[in-house]
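Q: What does the assembled structure look like for these inputs?
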Amino acid sequence: MDPKRDALEIEILERCLRRLEQGADLETLLREVPEAVPLRPLLETALWLRRGQEVALSPAARRRLIRQGQLRAARRAAAPRASRPVFRWAWALVAVLGLILVLLSAVGAAEASLPGEPLYPVKRAVEGLVTLGMSPEERALYLAERRWSEFEASAARGRWLPDLAEESLARLEEAARLGAEGPAGPAARLRALYERQGVLLEEAAAVAPPDVRSALARARQRWAGLAPVLGRPEGGIPEPTRSVETPVLPEPTAEILRERIHTPPGLEKQETPSAPRTPPGQEKTPPGQEKKETPRPVRTPPGQEKKDTPGPPRGQDSAPPGDQGPKGSPGR
Amino acid sequence: MGLLTPHPEERRWIARARKGDPEAIAALYQHYADGVYRYLLYRVGDAELAEDLTADVFLKMIEDLPRYEERGLPFGAWLFRIARARLIDHWRRQGRRPLVALEDTETGPQLSQDIPEDEIAVSEMIQRALRVLTEEQREVVVLRFLVGMSLEEVARAMGKSVGAVKALQHRALSALARYLEKIR
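A:
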């Protein structure tokens, strides 16, 4: 068969079928469209097929179907709203949002928690997630600051937790070794933290209860041992001043202790060392003058003061670790 | 009346049927049940089975009615989609198409006892004739001439071009005409 003739015949057939659908009479149509005459058998077949549209459901079957449908609709309308899919989704959404809210509240509350408290594990777990995207040195510094803030906060409540101090020192060392260097940012934070640690560890020796004093003294020794690590010549972390002629720390007054220890957790990170606490090695004063001009003492690692210091008024610096300082109670 | 011909009251029926109004449900059934039934009857060749499938289609319609408007389809087209899905599901469960080849049957299609005799005669004849067609030709003939869809609606329902449906329709009518000529 000729494809062109075929295509033409298909078009003529469709035109005629539309006319028949609109109610045209076949004979009239064939008179008007003579080229459709060869298609007469096909058009007659189409008309015959249309008789099939007269087939319908029997009245009984129709009634049965309608009754079934009405019953189903009635049951559906009477069903509890919550059982409908849209309400189930709404409840699920509310439940999920509620869960998220509870989790966020728990995370918020956990942020202020301290070791031994129920939410502390949550805090540590969140920390694990938060630090996932950090570089190793940033992570170590972040954790060192966090542990130290906790140590300070618990000390302010009269709980001395040497494990926290040890962990903070370990993280600080890790951060320094990993190269948290540079004029600003991590290096400055390292120095600030090192300063904070020195202040409190020294004071701890005086006020911590006897049962933890030796552990705190070990922590202080470790702190002192970090000086070379932090004072690498190529790095931005200078060694803390170890001047033998540095005046020894005066006995901390109750006010000083309160001021230092009661620093709210979380604020310490932003805190820059106060003027008297110039970071070790950063003093820009001319050589030879710094000792006289330094208004505050620089903490000296234990064991180094004995030979060079004329005589500490407190006496605890020269005492063996664990026996240092007066047997004061936390008193806070 | 074709399966896809909307009734002027249709929107109101749908809104009321959603709330379980029995009259609105009856109205939707009255308007569309025959078209759905016819489609299923000529595709499965068994009146009782076609009735059961029609019942399933309308029950599914009631279940899905709350979601209907989101689909943006004419109601008849939406209902036809349910019918087609139900039919395919039925065939899948059967593992085969129920319509057997013409030479495999001597009894012809099974029709309901409730249908008038002259309708049975026409319906039986058509059922037998449809068996000379290929599956695609049969679908085109059922949708276009027995359900009453337009050429464009058939093309959309089958996922084919209008040209392809025209060609299928031409070949189907030619085959049926030859068959009818032979048996007369």
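Residues 85-110 of chain A form the longest helix (26 residues).
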